[in-house]
Amino acid sequence: MKKIISLFVMATFLFNVTCAVAAGVVNENEKDPAAQYEIGMKFMKGEDVGKNYVQAYNWFKKAALQGHAQAQYELAGLCASGAGNVHQSDKEAFKWYEKASEQGVGEAKYYLGEMYENARATVKNDEKALKYYEESAAYGYVEAQYYMGELYYNGHIVRKNYEKEHKWYLKAAEQGDKRAQFCLAEMYRKGEGTPKNEDKALQYYKESAAQGYAKAENELGSYYYDRGNYKAALKWYDEAANQGNADAEYALGLIYYKGETGKINLAASLEYFRRAMVNGNEDAIFMLGEMYYNGYEVDKDYNEAMDYYVEYERLTHSSDAQYMIGKMYCEGEGVQKNTDTGVKWLKKAAEQGNEDAVAKLQEMNMYTPTKSDVNFKLETVNSNVKEETKALVSEQEANKAKVEEDAKAVEAAVKEDVDAAENKLQEGAAAV
After folding, report:
1. 238 near 253, Cβ under 8 Å?
2. Whole-number Cα distances in Å, 108 to 64, 82, 136, 286
3. Rounded CA gap, 311 and 46, in Å?
4. Do both 328 and 318 map to the same domain?
5. Is residue 412 part of a domain?
6. pLDDT digits (tens, 9 = 90+) for 313-346
7. DSSP 265-300
8. Taking Cα atoms as reference points, which of 374, 372, 328, 379 lies closest to residue 350?
9. Which residues 6+ apart lie within 8 Å of 431 measured at CB?
């Protein structure tokens, strides 16, 4: 008990000494707002003194009350977050953000916009929110520039506009914002708001990935994978997967499953599929069903496989999952054999064009052409007719052009003969 009391007394002493040291810095001019702001920053960052948000709040408030714009902004931030033991108050945060904004603090305008958009300590007002976001972005605050791009991308508060989206992402990207660089890469890849440009897309993916942005790392993995450069693909997928990117984890699972590194590695594949599923990749659920169905690196378990297939079908209505569920019911794998239920699932898959389901139904003499089959055949016939008609028209046009060309040649030849005859007549007349 005495030890605890001693530690408490020591802590109190050190706290008082820290405050005294800090106060000593402005002892000669305690009313100087610039000095008060600097002391507040020291407490907030823990520079030369122990980090203490309450003391930072107190010093910022002294400066803020004297009109120090940056202190008003920092004070608002502490009120908004309630960091440390500072009393959280949206009302106080709004008040100080507004004051800082009136003095031209661009960052404050952004957070004031947020408060209007989300109705924090004020009535929701999207028009005012947009006004403050635009002012903050124009000031050069990168967070506002990125968010303006997001607004125009999603059509939130404003109408969807690819050109303006591109404009704001570009401004944020030029300041090194890795999220904006990724979004800009996506726009160049898809040709949204700008002509398609694979080189620029790759450039911005690389810039974003160089800063450790997992989405960009995953896209670079896909870029190299599609071009058969599995070594580079593995490098970038691995970087993204280490940050918990589910798509990269799934991609790695497939690479090891297919043996695209030169050797199949089902143990690694199983691990990555499990990680991908936990992190939200739905396709990994189906592949885990495949692992349990086939007994790859796990004991073959039809019950477990069925659970994965059913869950994947529930989420995606996948024809592959429908086929496997139907097949397992027909064959009594992991469930009591039920041909009627199996055929129902196989027909669902067949209606989506699943060839394995069609083949299974034909094998069982249970297949009847579906509406989609008929439509597909009609589309194929129509397409063939269109192509044949197009070819016939082209042939006719070519023949017509040849006939016209031959007629012109004949006409020219006749004219040449007539001219020659006239010349001879003229020559004969001259001789007489």
Report:
1. no
2. 14, 17, 8, 48
3. 50
4. yes
5. no
6. 999 999 999 999 999 999 999 999 999 999 999 9
7. -HHHHHHHHHHHHHTT-SHHHHHHHHHHHHTSSS--
8. 372
9. none
